[in-house]
Amino acid sequence: MSESADQARTRRRWISLAEFVAVAGLIIAALGFWNSWSERRDAQADRAQAAQDAAKKSRYVLKGEVASDKSVKLTRDENHPLSEARVSFPKALGVGPQDALADSINADWFAKPLLKLTDGGPDDRTGRLPVLITYTYNDADGEHRASGIYDVIWQTRPGTLPLQGRRLTIANFRLRHAGGSQAELDRLWTRP
Fold first, then answer.
1. DSSP-derived secondary structure for 18-70
2. Taking phi first (over 0 means left), then psi (-120 to 50 degrees means alpha), and beta for anything else, what does residue 179 get?
3. What parts of the sequence cross the membrane (predicted)?
4. Domain extents for the chain?
5. pLDDT band, residue 161 (cuts 50/70/90)
6. 170 phi and psi, to 5 degrees?
7. What are 33-80's pLDDT values in tens digits?
8. With the CA atoms of 11, 17, 23 and 28 taken in that order, what torsion angle do they form, in degrees rounded to the nearest 10?
């Protein structure tokens, strides 16, 4: 049984049509796969951005400024109210941790040991005291705990009366970096 030229041409046309349908199906499948992959990638990027925005919104870095009474007033943020703030000093200074529940850091906490360490030197001095502040704050997501190492810039000045001696005041307050530990604080401390 041999086929005629017309039959052979018809058979080849059907093969070509079948090949065309197969290639078209392959292209449609590839486009569907690419579209699905693209949507997944975009959804992952959106989720990552939303998580980053939420973390940024809930993150709070404690700040403070020197008040007129020469203490450091911790700034308040209505979105992140403080429920606890604990100030730790280098162990070599001999000052125990202090609670800053009144939202302030007072020079009285460390003035006596620092004046003792700087005794015998010039009356006008400026130095840096690293402190570790561990604080707890709240936001819409609940309670969070954070810490940071801060520099308390101090100054000593002679007293106004001859027998009054020297006095220590706080001149500035700066964040050195977020995070930290007591061991790192002790490494950062250098005697004045």
1. HHHHHHHHHHHHHHHHHHHHHHHHHHHHHHHHHHHHHHHHH-----EEE-TTS
2. left
3. 14-34
4. 1-58, 64-188
5. low
6. -95, 125
7. 999 999 999 999 988 888 777 666 667 788 888 888 788 988 877 778
8. -150
